Amino acid sequence: MTLYGEILSQKRETEQANEVPGCQQTGTCQKYKSSRAVDGDINTCTRTAPIGRQLLDEWAWWYIDLEKVISIYSIRIQFKGYGEQYGCKNSGVYGYNCDLPCPNNCQELRCDIVNGSCLGCNAGWVGDLCNKSCPAGYYGLRCRSTCTGHCRDNLSCNHTTGQCDYGCECPAESYGPDCMFNCSGQCLSYLPCNRTTGRCDGGCNLGYTRELCDKECPPGTYGPDCLNVCNVTNGCNPGYTKEICDKEILSQNKETEQAEEVTGCQETGTCQQYQSIHAVDGKINTCTRTAKIGTPLIVPDKWTWWYINLEKVLSIYSIRIQFKDYGEQYVRRQRGRFAGFSLYVSNTTIKEDGYLCYKNGQELPALDFSTTCVKHGRYVIFYNERLDGTTYPTGYQIETVFTELCEVTVTGCEESGVYGYNCDLPCPYNCQESRCDIVNGTCLGCTAGWVGEFCNKSCPARYYGLQCGSTCTGHCRDNVSCNHTTGQCDYGCDNGWTGTHCNTECPAESYGPDCVYNCSGQCLSYLPCNRATGRCDGGCNSGYTGELCDKG
Predict the structure, then answer these.
(1) Residue 469's closest CA among 485, 456, 480, 454?
(2) For the range 541-549, what are the long-range contacts, defined as Cβ-Cβ under 8 Å and sequence gap of 24 or more?
(3) Can you give the pTM of this predicted structure?
(4) Domain ranges of the chain
(5) pLDDT tens across 128-165, in order?
(6) What's the rounded Cα separation, in Å, for the pair 186 and 202?
(7) What is the pLDDT of residues 309-344, one digit of tens each?
(8) What is the SS3 assignment for 334?
(9) Domain 248-414, architecture per CATH
């Protein structure tokens, strides 16, 4: 018999199960020891204690130690006599003469001794010969791990290690090689800058210019990208803001509400003096005041709020808050009281129902504060808190914190469905509820059947509805796609189907498009006809003929 490779087993160390009972007394233990199976002598054999259900032992075993991990080809057992093993003495090789190297990416360089296919692949490789790298987005052993990072330029992670070989995508507010530069922080609506270039691709906040939005408007200019020249010296006409005298004020003299009154104002007769309406009366010297908040246990209130009702959902551009200023010596105290506040835009009086427009952080806010807030909503909500057990940044006032809003100015477009610098450009036709970004006109949502920034792209074939999230379920005539807006079949149903979405099979005894035809009623054994063609596929009753069994 021709052997493949070399004998690996001869005269190697072996072990086996229990000795034959009584061999000590008979002096035959040596005769049956485990090494007899690999001594090259067919006439010497091992023997272990007998096994069986009714015996003491129920199983037996024997093994050989080949001294190291070796590529095995075959095992031969001669009973009586436990075999000679054949294979390659050295690991990492295969073939008839054990002279071909296993493929480089075989795990531990182990491969099939006959054809060289790997018995496992190193991390990052797959295939019979481990010569295919993991597909994009996967890495590791058997490519079972998913890349979890954000690699630079949207590249896939390393297929072996999962690392980003060419660097990571920068976190918000940083950019450039190894994220070594900081964004200006003045991109429109405080969005992050481009992580590669640092540019503000969507434009700058009011008062800033250049690609990085890192330069304040020069004196005498204002507005988006500092393109407007100031033309006022003593304030604006009624209904317009000082910073941008051609944007409409939405907030003046609108209905307002606020948190609890200042304690004791009833006794002192000052409740009227601190009413919420004073924040939108156009007078900087009249201010609201709510009950104090603070962290000490003796201060019962831990949060405060104020909101304005704009009467309908409007397109908002900016919010300006002028906090009570008691003069230079109290500026830091007042900024510490103002600190930590949040601004929300909502369609209800509940802030959680809306959008967080701004949240003050570590830096103490200016007493005359402005922020760009490109949102749609009916209510603008001011909120602040001082909670027990919370550590606040340096400078925050945490005891006896009064909230005093002297003027809140909300600017935007007075009419819905428009955008642009002068609020005179109509929002794209397919914007949901005709709402679009007040600056660039991009839709804030699309009506059913449309997608894209300007909602000018219909759903792809076989999809319809809001965000094209529904799949056509019917059988439209001539295999045409359903209506991208409604999901209905505009040109009728295919043969055998009916219903507004053509997803209902024709009832028995009818067929054709929209089930407009009646079966002959003479199909064999009075079975229903084919719902699509009207034919009697199983034949006709006696006395009738034709494909439709409609001829006597």
Answers:
(1) 485
(2) 544/520, 548/519, 548/520, 549/520, 549/522, 549/523, 549/524
(3) 0.49
(4) 1-89, 174-229, 248-414
(5) 899 888 887 889 998 888 888 777 666 778 889 988 88
(6) 11
(7) 999 999 999 999 999 999 999 999 999 999 999 999
(8) helix
(9) Sandwich (2.60)
